[in-house]
Amino acid sequence: MADIDVKIAQWKLVEVGRVVLIRRGPFTGKLAVIVEIVDHRRVLVDGPSSEEQKIVPRHVLPLANATLTHFTIPKLPRAAGTGPVKKLWANNEIDAKWAKSNYAQKTEGADRRKNLTDFERFKVLRLRKQARYEVQKSLAKAKAAAPKA
Fold first, then answer.
1. Domain residue limits, the chain
2. Is the pLDDT of residue 104 over 60?
3. Which residues are in coiled coils (predicted)?
4. Does residue 40 carry a pLDDT above 80?
């Protein structure tokens, strides 16, 4: 038989140490790390964030309510307590990495936009109109300067 080289796929796996984003429940929108796999549908998570409002207590979470992220905490022992998880969370700078991710920036921008007042929405409208006018003006200038074919 021929030698076959089997490689692990480069996608996000359910594994101990994988950081998840909670989609439903009382901790919606918060990050946690998988500490133990209970069965094929549930995991034990713990979210020892450095910010008080982002802390997720240790609990069992259905995988249907979680989104796996690209971030992992390597060498996290199975069923590690909150203390070691918090230490490794801080060492791997999960909060900072998450804040730099595209998904976090998009959701933060959407939240900011959703919470605008009427006057702030009006100012955004005026700024967009000004930007559109400048783009149209420069495009017209470029078309006028281009040689006629």
1. 18-101, 116-145
2. yes
3. none
4. yes
